[in-house]
Amino acid sequence: MKITVIGLGQMGGNMALTLHKAGFDVTGSDVFDSARERLAGLGLAVAAPTELPASDVYLLSLPTSAQVREVIEQTPNLLATAPRGSVIVDTSTSDPVISRELAAKVLEAGLEWLDAPVSGGPKGAASGRLGMLLGGDPATVARLEPMLAAMSAKRTHVGGPGSGHVVKLANNYLCATNLLATAEAVTLAAKAGVDPAACLAGLNSGSGRSAVSEVNFPEWILSGRFDSGFTSGLMRKDLRLASDAAAGLALDLGLLEQVVAGWHADPEHPADSDDFNHIASPLLAQAGLDFTTSDPREEPAR
After folding, report:
1. How far apart are CA 281 and CA 150, in angstroms?
2. Which residue intervals define the domain 3-hydroxyisobutyrate dehydrogenase-like NAD-binding in the entry (predicted)?
3. Active site residue 154
4. Where are the alpha helices (DSSP H) in 132-219?
5. Which H or E run contains 119?
6. Among residues 105, 168, 191, 237, which one is catalytic?
7. CA–CA separation, 151 and 127 (whole Å)
């Protein structure tokens, strides 16, 4: 299976290296020369966007749906250049409406589509331990199983094209909500004299536990590292997409709108470039807690 990975940031670059180490024939591509040079220095074959090789799979890891659309539709584009029968896999967190529109064009052009947004951050991408939400034809999922298995510890097929991106937005909405709620809970306990680590141990033994209380708080917040590799700007983008999806379905989701407002209340605390776990910092500060041990604006460790 020949794979071209388009987008060599922290996620795409690590996924490309993981697949390469697993024995796949992988070529990486990125619009930035520096990204291609960095991956070439790590032993990966690279190509400019105008020189993509014919491949069985084109795996996209891009910031937004706008970049996904550009790669698929604009000249030179995959609709015109990808071999018939090849698969376009979008691992970005994209707008489901746009994903379904692009999927229809991809299928009409004789290609296959799979949306496969991921969780687990750069560390999960580097270790092949990602979580993946899959939207597409079951036959496409089965065809790509060897590749998906090399990339992920858990993968869930949730429906047709766009479904993976719908569930990813739902997941990130819950994560964003849990960060705010858990920060408030820890702040309440700390102000009342309970050590934050002890509070989290208690929460994680009860029904209030979540991935945020079990993973985010100990690994990235209490440690002061704030280096998850996912920025506040990306979470705000995902929340806006979730809000737009709800509006498009004529849903009145009051809590979602409160969470969106909470994440946008102060664009500097955290700044878009800060690690997304910093959303807890202003709340924790009310109890005199400051776990920041380094400049939060520093680039997350690769």
Report:
1. 36
2. 162-279
3. no
4. 138-143, 145-151, 163-191, 196-203, 211
5. strand 118-119
6. 168
7. 8
C-alpha separations of 199 from 65, 159, 179, 280, 288 in Å: 40, 38, 15, 15, 15
Degrees, nearest 5: CA angle 168-273-275 = 60
| Domain annotation for the chain: domains and CATH numbers | 2-160 (3.40.50.720), 166-285 (1.10.1040.10)
DSSP string, 142-158: HHTHHHHHHHEEEEEEE
CB 179 within 8 A of CB 280: yes
The CA distance from 24 to 69, in Å, is 26
The C-alpha atoms of residue 25 and residue 12 are separated, in whole angstroms, by: 15
Chain-centroid distance of CA 199 in Å reads: 29
pLDDT digits (tens, 9 = 90+) for 1-42: 999 999 999 999 999 999 999 999 999 999 999 999 999 999
Task: In whole angstroms, give the CA distance from residue 162 to residue 142.
Answer: 18
Which pLDDT belongs to residue 300? 34
Q: Any idea of the CA torsion for 234, 236, 237, 238, to the nearest 10 degrees?
A: 90
